[in-house]
Each structure stands twice: as structure tokens, then as C-alpha cells.
Amino acid sequence: MSGSRVSLRPLKNPDWETWREVRIASRDWLEPWEPLGEPGTPDPVTDPEAFKARCGAWERQRHFDAAYGFGIFVRKGDVFVGEVSLGSVQRGPFQSANVGYWIGAAHAGQGYMPEAVAVILRFAFEELRLHRVEAAIVPRNLASRRVAEKLGLRDEGTAARFLQIRGVWEDHVRYAITAEEWAARRDELEAAVLARR
Description:
Elements: E1 6-9, H1 16-25, H2 27-30, H3 48-63, E2 68-74, E3 79-90, E4 96-103, H4 112-127, E5 132-137, H5 142-150, E6 154-165, E7 168-178, H6 179-194
Parallel strand pairs: 4-5
Antiparallel strand pairs: 1-2, 2-3, 3-4, 5-7, 6-7
């Protein structure tokens, strides 16, 4: 899947070195917003077998229509810069998913992330036929909030102690967009975010 400057594809085992380099270089930038891993769980940053297992887990979830994870690559030079995902896909009367994203510090603020999130929203609404996509963001994570706001996701309020981040139950601002909102804003987003050169 592609926008004008980024492409999304599932990560594969050979991506480990590049993925690892970005994660190590961006550790201080990324880790304040991420949950602690389960004790005793191998770290995919230091263990290629753990990365391989992570790729396999994403593939299994994709197979069962449960979650979809993608690496973000800048098309010029095919440079890996981060990840975007749709998790907790629910069918039945919900038809919803959660969007999550991160970008390496060296590539932040260049418009790649809003474009990547717009691409995955297009996939969610036009290919998966979901009705609603949500994002939950720690209130002080202003960079991630700017992405949601730039794309016009609706602020639905703050959920108290919503997710464990670095061992602390943190409040999260909950953003959402529905299929109807996507349809009404698709052309605008195509022009503003996906068609950027």
C-alpha cells in the first residue's frame, strides 16, 4: 500500500537489522510512550529470533483478520522509518479497530506519519470495510496527538488509567473516525496528505 512518499508492507525477518537500528537510535524518543514488556520475554531489539517470532505473530493475526501490522518505508530509497498497525479488529456489530503508530526520531516532523496513518485508514475503511477506527494517546504525547488532529480524528475525551505505559497506568485521550467521516473527508485527505510530493 502506498501514499505519495511512503509505502507500507508487513515486516519480514530480513528487516531485523534495519528495524533494530531505528529502534536503538530512537530509544529515548519512543520508550516513554510504550508499555513495559512482559518479564522474561525476549526483546526483539536484541534477539533476532524474537523479531522473527514477532513477524510470525503479525502474519497469524493478519490471517485471522485480528490485526494488521506494517513497516513504513520512505519510497525514495526504500528507507524504513517506523510502523503503523490496526489492532484489536472486531467484526460483528462493532466493525472496528485501533490504530497505533511510531516513527524513528530522525524522520519525525517530516509528514511521513500522517501520510502512513491516512494510508492505513484508507485500507481500514475501503478494503477491510471497518466502520470505526480509534487511537488512544497519552495526553502529553503531543507529537502523536498532532498526527491524529492533522487527520481530523475526533477527540472523544480522556479515558482514566487506560493503558500501562512504562509500568504506570496512564490516562489516554481517545480519538476516533468513522466510515462516514472518512467518506466525507477522503478527497480532502487525499489532497492534503496522500498527494503531497
